[in-house]
Predict the structure.
Amino acid sequence: MTDEPSPAERALYLAAVRSGGRLVPEDLTASDRPAVAALVARGLLTPTATGWTAANPRVLGDRLGLELRTRALRLLLHAERLPRVLGPLTHAYDATRHPGGGAPGARSAIGHGATPAGGPGLGLGAVHPGPGSVDEAADARRRISELISECQEEVLAAQPGPRPLEGLRMALPQDLSLLRRGCSMRTVYQPVTLAGPAVLSQITLRTEHGAQVRVLSEPYERVLIFDRAVAVIAADTDRGRAAFLTDPSTVAYLVAQFERDWARATPAGRFLDPPPPTTVRIGRLLARGLTQRAVATRLGLSERTVAAHISRLRDRYGAQTLFHLGWQLRGERHD
């Protein structure tokens, strides 16, 4: 199956939308069955007891976008690693063509790369524990701490998912020191990060000293970028190790991805102040799947009042539709 829906799938999905977001078996021909199966597999149609309902295509777009960006990054990592992996083979080939191994300088460049293992010229560094390479958790934390201390201009951070409160507290003195010496710090979080007041307090302590924070509900990968020269990403799927990247083209690619997400993200100022209790209650009911009218009835409010609260929630979460807002609020805690 390709990444994008076929013309037949798109036509059938649009027919479902025009029919009020529903398809029933009586509306389909035998030739429609493959397209229905493909749309269900993509998550664009959801089976029901009486047929199918249209799902929000934005969810599919977000998921595929993340998968494609992750695939591209893995290809970049692989491309950077190939010279080191093929180095011994290249050296053996060169030694055969040039008995005696040729000039010492040429042998070093072919066998081990243009700089020593882990040196900055390798971009990814050697893909084994060592300076500027793939490190275990403790080594990665130490190296990140060094990068923060050495940073001269800017830190960019994309931090999806919940943030550990204790980690934020421990990092606060170093973050404030960085901001006080004139460096900028821009961070993108997801809404779930700002659900707890203690975490909000930690973020506020940084924004009060000049840090900039935005919130993006879309999925994205974790990355730290220091002075647009060194980027830190997860080196494996379970995020147990970190890769420190210094290749200019790779870092530039990651910076472009960050800037794209930053432009799409919502300024966090509206998150740092907790919403009114009524707005919180409305959000809780929307997350349970209630409609605007049902929320108004449940809380004894006019639909116009509920609509005003929903508008504030949409602004807070950057949601374009009520469906999108409810989907985002599903994983949100409303204590």
